[in-house]
Design brief:
This protein has helices at 44-52, 94-104, 109-122, 138-150, 168-185, 196-202, 220-225, 230-235, 349-354; strands at residues 6-15, 18-28, 33-37, 59-64, 67-68, 79-82, 156-160, 188-193, 205-210, 213-218, 240-248, 251-254, 257-260, 270-276, 281-284, 291-300, 305-310, 316-321, 330-335, 341-344. By secondary structure, it is of the alpha+beta class. The strands form four sheets. Strands 6-7-8-3-9-10 form a six-stranded mixed beta sheet, with helices on both faces. A five-stranded antiparallel beta sheet has the order 13-12-11-14-20. Strand 1 (6-15) and strand 2 (18-28) form a beta hairpin. The protein is elongated and about 80 Å long. The relative contact order is 0.12.
């Protein structure tokens, strides 16, 4: 079995007495696209900076291909980092920016020229060698920052919210460009973002973080369809998270109504959290629903209608459907058993922060 490319072991980091990372363990395989995803202050950028060598952990170790690099300075690590602000040198031409790392490593000029041409072709900016940084758009500057990183042939590329300053269309274009580059070059990417859609679009592995803990790690499909706790369910996409009672295996009670599900092993008459995605709710005739309610809000979103259905208990169910039900209409709520996700309730705030869901 091959070693992971990057391994973080028991990492702890505090700033001014505030614990940012608490006993963090993370393993990244070679040639993967791993996204660290979470809200501001969750520890994702600190994790990236520790991998890059810009921060030193208070405890724990960083391994690269099995070698301990915890104390190795950033400029000696076999990786490159692309920051949100790009950090391009405005007094240099595009070619000089791309060649910067190669010149430090004293590569011959012919080698550098070949690498500049190769990198500009990869990022679809051929012929830009002599342009100034100031003449480029935000998206073009981003591509040059990536070109400068990849000419050094790093085994690992760290990207810290690199698309955050771009407009929506350009951001989407760059997402596809990064996926293409990763596949063409075989470089391992570790990517930091707070944008859930970006993470779901680009990654083969998502690491959801909150309050210094890893809440869940898995494929985009696993993270979206099988969230392990209420934080992940609420942070990734939109969810209806409600209190339920697990009456027995495969049967849960929600607001007095019994829903068949597929989950087992939660016990008998056990309080649980129930997650149902808006697109998994079918609105039917009132007499055909497990719960009944009234449509109280309606928005047309283009690909679907977004509705709120208020049930007698006062809960407002978020529903996404290609069928439109007008405000004021009485409807029934039906959910297929496979679309109901059951989770244990955390017993304390500490458990909730750590994402404990045993």
């Amino acid at each position: 079995m091959s070693l992971p490319l990057i391994e973080l072991k028991n990492i702890e980091k505090s700033y001014d007495g505030n614990l940012i990372l608490d006993d963090l363990n993370l393993s990244v395989k070679e040639n993967s696209f791993v996204t660290l995803l979470g809200p501001s202050g969750c520890g994702k950028t600190t994790t990236l900076r520790i991998i890059g060598g810009f921060e030193t952990p208070d405890k724990g170790s960083v391994l690269f291909n099995g070698q301990d690099i915890t104390s190795m300075p950033a400029n000696r690590r076999p990786l490159n980092t692309v920051f949100q602000k790009y950090a391009l040198f405005t007094h240099m031409s595009i070619a000089e920016n791309i060649a910067f790392g190669l010149r430090i490593r004293k590569k011959p000029q012919s080698y550098i020229d070949d690498k500049i041409r190769y990198a500009l072709k990869l990022v679809n900016l051929e012929g830009f060698e002599n342009r100034s940084v100031d003449s480029l758009s935000g998206g073009q500057q981003q591509r040059i920052a990536i070109a400068r990183a990849i000419v050094n042939e790093p085994k690992l590329l760290l990207l810290d919210e690199p698309l955050g300053a771009l407009d929506l269309k350009l951001r989407q274009d760059m997402q596809y460009e990064l996926i293409r580059l990763k596949n063409e070059l075989g470089i391992t990417f570790i990517y930091v973002t707070h944008d859930q859609e970006e993470a779901l679009t680009m990654s083969d592995t998502i690491v959801v973080m909150n309050k210094g803990y890893i809440q869940q790690m898995g494929t985009p499909e696993q993270i979206y369809n099988e969230p392990e706790n209420a934080f992940v369910a609420d942070f990734i996409g939109e969810s209806n998270i409600v209190d339920g009672i697990m009456l027995r295996d495969e049967l849960v009670e929600i607001f007095g109504a019994k829903f068949v599900c597929v989950d087992k092993g939660f016990g008998v008459n056990k309080p649980v959290d129930v997650v149902i995605r808006p697109e998994d709710i079918d609105l039917v005739k009132p007499e055909d629903g497990t719960l009944c309610g009234v449509v109280t809000h309606l928005i047309f979103k283009g690909v679907h209608y977004e509705m709120e259905v208020t049930t007698p208990d006062g809960f407002e169910w978020l529903v996404h459907s290609t069928d439109m039900f007008p405000v004021g209409q009485k409807v029934g709520i039906h959910v297929d058993p496979f679309d109901i996700q059951i989770m244990n309730k955390p017993e304390s705030e500490d458990e909730e922060a750590a994402g404990v869901n045993e």
